[in-house]
């Protein structure tokens, strides 16, 4: 079982011979955002048996990146996504499946279970509120929870269930975070509640608004290290793997 972090919320989860890719964004620039750390992922990052898209924001559902997927790749998107994002219809060579909380999908020997997230999942800035934000639990040799983009909510641990590895957002792409996001402090509390064997912080230190390099730069650079420090206090039994862009780890599992 192996996790590779490509930057932002983009990860490859390899389990039981299956490659799953989360929220693929391969661009150097995305609207007003510029990739400030880590080279864009190589071509092999787009190789996947299935892709898990947590919500419709363009830094998570990025159509040019999805267009790089091979024909026949299974693409799990929030229910209502095809209606809200017409560009998905141009990706007809992909196996697009709309899902919502409580759904499950088989990908070879692996089961993907869809769980809720606390986030505004619509296509911004004016999309209708018809698509939920999602998290996913990948159940194979390990149980891996990809939280997507989410705030801390009371039933998070109950919805995810027992997990071995947690991929948790710990930052964002701008100088402020709202209630529907996890910062390092809230992510450490989520880790305490989830109590996995291992964790990988994601969704930080990759994209930043053009022209705002000098505005609260610690919000770009420090969330990963801050999460490690806070997790050591909140959840000392969890092994946290702080990855560089493109780095892989074989995390501890209990099974």
From TrEMBL:
It comes from the Bacteria. SUPFAM superfamilies: Metallo-hydrolase/oxidoreductase. This is MBL fold metallo-hydrolase. Keywords: Hydrolase. Residues 7-203 form the Metallo-beta-lactamase domain. InterPro entries: Metallo-B-lactamas, RibonucZ/Hydroxyglut_hydro, UPF0173_UPF0282_UlaG_hydrolase. The keyword Cytoplasm does not apply. GO terms for molecular function: hydrolase activity. The lineage of its organism: Bacteria, Bacillati, Actinomycetota, Actinomycetes, Kitasatosporales.
């Amino acid at each position: 079982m192996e996790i590779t972090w490509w930057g932002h919320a983009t990860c490859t989860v390899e389990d039981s011979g299956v490659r799953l890719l989360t929220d693929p964004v391969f661009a150097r620039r995305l609207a007003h955002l510029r990739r400030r750390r880590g080279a864009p992922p190589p071509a092999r990052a787009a190789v996947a048996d299935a892709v898990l898209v947590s919500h419709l924001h363009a830094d998570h559902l990025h159509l040019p990146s999805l267009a790089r997927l091979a024909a026949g790749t299974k693409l799990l998107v929030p229910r209502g996504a095809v209606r809200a994002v017409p560009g998905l219809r141009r990706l007809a060579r992909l196996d697009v499946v709309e899902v919502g909380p409580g759904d499950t999908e088989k990908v070879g020997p692996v089961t993907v279970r869809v769980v809720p997230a606390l986030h505004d999942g619509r296509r911004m800035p004016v999309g209708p509120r018809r698509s939920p934000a999602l998290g996913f639990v990948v159940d194979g040799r390990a149980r891996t929870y990809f939280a997507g983009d989410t705030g801390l909510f009371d039933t998070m641990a109950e919805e995810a269930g027992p997990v071995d590895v947690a991929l948790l957002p710990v930052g964002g792409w701008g100088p402020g975070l709202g209630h529907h996001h996890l910062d390092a402090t809230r992510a450490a509390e989520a880790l305490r509640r989830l109590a996995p064997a291992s964790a990988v912080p994601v969704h930080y230190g990759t994209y930043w608004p053009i022209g705002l390099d000098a505005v609260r730069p610690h919000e770009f650079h420090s969330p990963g290290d801050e999460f490690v420090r806070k997790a050591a206090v909140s959840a000392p039994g969890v092994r946290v793997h702080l990855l560089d862009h493109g780095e892989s780890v074989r995390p501890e599992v209990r099974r």
